[in-house]
Structure formats: C-alpha cells, structure tokens
From TrEMBL:
PANTHER family: M48 FAMILY METALLOPEPTIDASE, METALLOENDOPEPTIDASE OMA1. It comes from Hymenobacter armeniacus. Residues 75-252 form the Peptidase M48 domain. This is M48 family metallopeptidase. It comes from the Bacteria. Transmembrane segments: none annotated. Keywords: Hydrolase, Metal-binding, Metalloprotease, Protease, Signal, Zinc. Its cofactor is Zn(2+). The keyword tRNA processing does not apply. Belongs to the peptidase M48 family. The keyword Metal-binding applies.
Length: 264
C-alpha cells in the first residue's frame, strides 16, 4: 500500500512539473499560467499605485525602450521555437519607481519595475539591458510560479491556489509578493542559486537577441562587485550568488550568447 501511495505521489509530482526554456531544467509547477498572471497583474497594480512613479521623462523612456527591445527578443525566440503559447496572457508593462532602492524586478506576465536607485550603477543602456534581461528571464523561466508552488507546499500544505485565495487571501497574496521578489522587506522565498544562474543564462541570450552586447554583463557585474566590496550589498544582490562565481559563469556562457548578437 505504501509503495502504491509513493508511486501515486511521484506521478502527481511529475505531472506538476514544467520545463524551463533553453536550460531544460524541470521545475515544480502547481500554479497555472492564467492564475499566476492574474495574481501578478493585481499585485503589480497595487505596487505601481503606491509608487511614486518617476517623472523623469528620460529615465522612463530609457527603461521602456530597453524593455520593449527585450520583449521583442523574447517573443522572437519563442516564435522561432514554435513555443509562443508559453507567453500566452503576457501583457507587458515597464514602469520606473522613484526610490533609492538599487533594485528591479519582473512579475509573471511581463510586469516590470525598475527603481531609480539602480540607474547610476547600470550607467548606460547596455548596462540597464543586463539588469532588465535578467529580471525578465526570471519571469520567462517561471521562477515566480515555481517559488509560489514551493510556498504552497511549505506554508499551505500544497493547497491549490484558488482554494488558498478563497480561504486565506491576505496570506496568499503575501506569498505571491514573496514569490515575485518584490520589495526589500519581503524575502522569505528567495531565488535559489540555480534560478539566479538560470536567469543570468537566459538574460544573456535575450539581451543579445535584442541587439545589446552580452559582453557588457561582465563589466556590469564587476561594477557591482566593486560596490559590494565598498559598502553594504545593494538590494539587487541580496539573494544572488557571489559576484566572482557569477562572472565566471557568465564568461563560460558568453560564447553561446554571442551567437545571437548583432549590433544595432
């Protein structure tokens, strides 16, 4: 009987798995794309409403220009792989929040926010592309859904999202914000190193497809490394692998990314 139950549980786990594009890693997926995108859109509206949004037209134009180019690259990649259905329900948005946080994030469904505090570190358009491609890669790789699935198992006993929302909506919404990595005060469910490395890998390819030089990722992370050594780590780095490890991994992955790069 125990073996039978174990087999059933194993089959259920396999059925609840999805595959990350490009890397092929299998991940836990207990939340549908429709559910996670709807919840993300709701949480995004609440965050953006609190703002304050930047009134610097140059910063806003820069973020939206970079974001839209990376959006186009992502859509092109999935179209070429005959996998555009994986982006079904995406309604891209790119906003700039006036805040000293050195941070950026992308919720499921393409909901992006960049904090003005990180712009002095990105320095230029290519540096910003490194950050935004990385964050968009988290969404495309469905890391938010994966973390939410893990949270449902750990905190709510594997309860379905719809049931969790109906019985304990505030806790579930808080779980969503944690899973999406939004805000410095929220971080119980941190991106694991595998997810961070995966976002770096996918991000290099997406920024290259968008016409940004992926070699710029090295100089960006070197700047971040210097900043981390000089002061407390920026929020953007709080859950990330060591910069030395990250730079070494990126150097190893650059030859693949360069194949997708054509300067614009």
């Amino acid at each position: 009987m125990l073996k039978k139950l174990t087999l059933v549980a194993s089959l259920a786990f396999v059925a609840a798995c999805s595959t990350v594009p490009i890397t092929g890693r299998r991940q836990l997926s207990l939340v549908s794309d429709t559910e996670i995108n709807t919840l993300a859109a709701q949480q995004y509206r609440e965050v953006i409403a609190k703002g304050p949004l930047s009134t610097n037209s140059q910063d806003v134009a820069l973020v939206r220009r970079v974001g839209q180019r990376i959006q186009g690259a992502v859509e092109t990649y999935f179209r070429q792989q005959n996998a555009s259905d994986q982006l079904a329900g995406y309604q891209w948005e790119f906003n700039v929040i006036q805040d000293k946080q050195e941070n950026a994030w992308c919720m499921p469904g393409g909901k992006v926010a960049v904090y003005t505090g990180i712009l002095p570190i990105t320095q230029d358009e290519n540096g910003l592309a490194v950050v935004m491609a990385h964050e968009i890669a988290h969404a495309v790789a469905k890391h938010g859904s994966e973390r939410m699935s893990q949270g449902l198992v750990q905190q709510l006993g594997g309860q379905a999202l719809s049931a969790a929302l109906s019985t304990n909506a505030p806790a579930t919404q808080q779980l969503a914000l944690q899973a999406f990595g939004v805000g410095s005060q929220i971080g119980l469910l941190k991106y694991g190193r595998n997810q961070e490395s995966e976002a770096d890998h996918l991000g290099l390819i997406f920024m290259a497809l968008a016409g940004y030089n992926p070699d710029g990722a090295i100089t960006f992370w070197q700047r971040m490394d210097a900043r981390e050594n000089a002061a407390s780590p920026p929020e953007f780095l709080s859950t990330h692998p060591s910069n030395g490890t990250r730079i070494a991994d990126i150097q190893r992955e650059l030859p693949e990314a360069r194949k997708y790069y054509t300067a614009r």
